[in-house]
């Protein structure tokens, strides 16, 4: 009965979003029906502030465009391994956490796990300048959670400098004063801040200058199609120039081919992230690598990186100035 009511609620909400007079139904076995069933299962597993079994972290390399062989930076991504061995990516899991009001528990687990991992393997991270970790909007606006986060940073203060906490631009501007306080405290603890998916929202540039972020991560929707659409190239170029003029580093996500990599090099992007460099990896793979460029598999990409991506004084996301 509860499942039937949940599916009816989903159909009702979808019907309200469509034009009047349309009927929305879910048939058992239909993709939408099965998708909702999976969502409900995840929400139930996250209820009562519990974390589901099978949570684990993977790490995707982020390559410096001026020091590809001398740095090993990465973003931490959440995954869920089910009892049958299949893996659920972060999207459905985070959506379920938001539905159950449990994003803070997820973020707390991720951050504490990352800090403990860095502490354990610090001696093997000589070439790592920063480790990106996402924070959800619900967590950022939870005062109790924020105090717990800063308690964690104090506890792991020796490695807090590795952290680059990612928040989306829409969340950052939702409560500007709260975000400013959060960024200031994070900086005091040695952590860095990146505005994620930049360009996806409707940022007012007059507010951006008031946020002392360290990096802008360009929304991948612009990056992925920039070689097919000149307008996207212009947008990426404008964001890179904006970041540079504000003293921030720029990071391009969803980089999938050498042509896009070449265009980003010409524009002057500081860092790139995407399948053209490396897919999300198990933590042991990161510890065994020498640099982000170690994960490149395609010969034409490796050749381009070896010949074009180098500079005598590489830029660091930690300092924001030539290092």
Can you describe what's shown?
This protein is α/β, with parallel strands linked by helices and 323 residues long. The chain folds into two domains: 1-45, no CATH class; 53-308, Alpha-Beta Barrel (TIM Barrel), CATH 3.20.20.450. Helices cover 46% and strands 15% of the residues. The protein is built from 14 helices and nine strands. The protein has helices at 2-17, 31-45, 90-100, 103-121, 137-140, 143-155, 169-174, 176-188, 205-208, 220-224, 230-245, 258-267, 283-288, 299-308; strands at residues 55-64, 73-81, 87-88, 131-134, 163-168, 192-198, 215-218, 249-252, 271-273. An eight-stranded mixed beta barrel has the order 1-2-4-5-6-7-8-9. Strand 6 (192-198), helix 9 (205-208) and strand 7 (215-218) form a beta-alpha-beta unit. Helix 12 packs parallel to helix 14 (299-308). The longest helix has 19 residues, at 103-121. The radius of gyration is 21 Å and the shape is globular. It starts with a helix and ends in a 15-residue tail after the last helix.
């Amino acid at each position: 009965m509860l499942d039937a009511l949940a599916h009816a609620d989903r159909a009702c909400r979808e019907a309200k979003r469509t034009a009047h007079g349309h009927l929305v139904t879910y048939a058992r076995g239909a993709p939408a029906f099965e998708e909702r069933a999976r969502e409900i299962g995840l929400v139930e597993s996250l209820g009562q502030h519990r974390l589901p079994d099978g949570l684990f972290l993977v790490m995707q390399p982020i390559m410096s465009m001026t020091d590809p062989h001398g740095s090993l930076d990465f973003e931490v991504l959440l995954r869920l391994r089910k009892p049958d061995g299949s893996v659920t990516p972060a999207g459905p899991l985070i959506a379920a956490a938001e539905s159950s009001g449990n994003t803070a528990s997820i973020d707390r687990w991720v951050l504490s796990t990352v800090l403990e991992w860095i502490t354990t393997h610090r001696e093997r991270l000589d070439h790592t300048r920063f480790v990106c970790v996402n924070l959800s909007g619900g967590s950022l606006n939870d005062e109790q959670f924020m105090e717990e986060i800063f308690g964690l940073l104090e506890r792991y203060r020796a490695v807090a400098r590795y952290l680059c906490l990612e928040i989306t631009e829409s969340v950052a501007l939702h409560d500007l004063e709260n975000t400013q306080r959060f960024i200031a405290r994070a900086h005091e603890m040695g952590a860095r801040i990146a505005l994620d998916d930049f360009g996806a929202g409707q940022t007012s540039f007059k507010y951006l200058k008031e946020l002392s972020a360290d990096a802008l991560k360009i929304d991948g929707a612009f990056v992925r199609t920039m070689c097919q659409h000149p307008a996207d190239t212009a947008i990426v170029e404008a964001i890179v120039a904006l970041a540079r003029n504000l003293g921030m580093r720029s990071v391009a996500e969803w980089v999938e081919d050498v042509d896009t990599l070449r265009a980003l090099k010409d524009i002057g992007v500081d860092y790139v992230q995407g399948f053209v460099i490396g897919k999300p990896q198990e933590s042991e793979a990161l510890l065994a690598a020498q640099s982000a460029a170690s994960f490149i598999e395609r010969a034409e990409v490796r050749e381009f990186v070896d010949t074009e991506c180098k500079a005598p004084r590489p830029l660091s996301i930690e300092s924001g100035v030539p290092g």
